[in-house]
Amino acid sequence: MSLINSYSQSLPQASSSATNTSAVTKSSVQSTTTTTGNSFLDSIRLPEESETPEANDEMLNQEDFFALLSQQLSMQDPFEPVDNDQMIAQMASFSTVDGISNLNDEILNLNTVMSSSQALQASGLVGRKVLVPSDTGSISAESPSINGVISTPSAMDTITVSVEDQSGQVIKSFSVDGSAGGNVDVSWDGLDKNGAPVEEGLYSIKASGKVDGEAQELAVSTYAHVSSVSLGTTATGAILNLRGVGGIKLTDVLAVSET
């Protein structure tokens, strides 16, 4: 009887142990999963988001440097401590590198601001004519003539001017007075040697004169109409788009004309 009673008394204990295990399991499940009691809402509930650790910055900053320096000082050999001059030199070197990096960032920001400001100023040239260091000008219905400037090293009686087309053929030749010396204005009305208007396109103005008794080619600059402005890059700056000619840097403009 004692055996039967002992066996029968052990059953509730096993059941109690199983019940406790089940309770622990349910408790752990409930602690990890939150339910609302509504089967529909539980089925569409979004899964809990897992936190993603932020990426560590691999670059050493000033705080990292001082942390390493503190470790170096705390673990140094007491019989051979770090020289003060060496420690100051390390701190000065790091501060110099950090300062140069910040200076580079500020220069890049300044270049961006200057490029935007330059483009804004150049936009005021749209619709006007600028003098560019090129002897090639454009003939079109909007600009039936080409004006320019001949640069002379000294005064000369006569300057011979010839107009050439893109193939190098001479369209017209004429002379201008160069007795004033310096920069001499030149203008071509867009007519050939027979007095007929030329076709639209690009034409070059060549000039020559005698310097100390010898014939010499003279530099010619022409006016062009500014049709638009491009921002360009930090290296080039603002770009002026000239009608029929192409783009030119703002810094290459020699003069601005009212018309």
UniProtKB/TrEMBL annotation:
Keywords: Bacterial flagellum biogenesis, Cell projection, Cilium, Flagellum
Region of interest called Disordered, as start-end residue ranges on this chain: 1-55
One Pfam family recorded for the sequence: FLgD_tudor
Domain of life: Bacteria
Keyword Ribonucleoprotein: no
Domain called FlgD/Vpr Ig-like: residue spans: 146-210
Signal peptide: none
Biased composition, class Low complexity, residue ranges: 1-36
Domain FlgD Tudor-like: from-to ranges: 117-253
Family classification: Belongs to the FlgD family.
Known role: Required for flagellar hook formation. May act as a scaffolding protein.
Name of the featured protein: Basal-body rod modification protein FlgD
Gene assigned in the entry: flgD
